[in-house]
Amino acid sequence: MASTTHKAIFITGGGSGIGRATAQLFAARGWRVGLADVNAAGLAETAALLPAGMASTYVMDVRDRDAWVATLDAFTAASGGQLDVLFNNAGIGSGGPLAETGFAEIDRVIAINLMGALNGARIGYAYLARTPGSCMLNTASASAIYGSAGLVPYSMTKFAVRAMSEGLDGEWAHAGADGGGIKVRALLPSFIDTPLLASPVEGSNRSIRETVTGAGLELTPVAAVAEAAWAAVHGDPVLTYVGKTAQRMKFAARWMPGQLRKTMRRRPRG
């Protein structure tokens, strides 16, 4: 059901993939959208897909704390001071055996996927606290259900994003100017069909996409994640599992942890 008021959502990683699909869905339902990304061309492409006058774009690196402040100041000035949802979505993919992964790549994954999200939470709090009923939404991953072999630095950051979401759900339960709380939600999508999967696996000539499909795992349409984002913002569960792989891993982690361990120890095909 479409929103009848111009609520405001700020989305990092808005230049492609999950961020773009979520922007399209929220804008179609009447929301004002702020898009942030390091990719200026991607931001322009996303903005062109949205209704005229509904989007603002900001070239921003989530590792840059000063940029977070300047960008949120600019967006909330344009939205009349309102920030209903901050979507901590920006992230990068990285795969390969840890022993073969360079320290520069490890540092980059942690800085963007973990510290970028933590920056958004720490700095975004003051803006969310001004809007009653606001929500911080974070993109975690099915890799935050059980540690993923071949994706250890990435999986580690997504476990941390999940922990941040669960912890802040309690910490911010009575926050905000009206004491009504700031909702905190996290998406745990399985492998989503986005450009992120084109990233190469460290120490291999294969992409993450080829590794995933070679393991017999399916890809989930990005539109399904956008719908899950809408449901998460408007629902009660802290964690929203998206896609068949995420649902199976959730079930296995609870009821068949031994089988899940065997799966992670299996040699990849090809």
UniProtKB/TrEMBL annotation:
Residues 7-185 form the Ketoreductase domain. Keywords: Oxidoreductase. InterPro entries: KR_dom, NAD(P)-bd_dom_sf, SDR_fam. Pfam families: adh_short (PF00106). Belongs to the short-chain dehydrogenases/reductases (SDR) family. This is SDR family oxidoreductase. It comes from Sphingomonas hylomeconis.
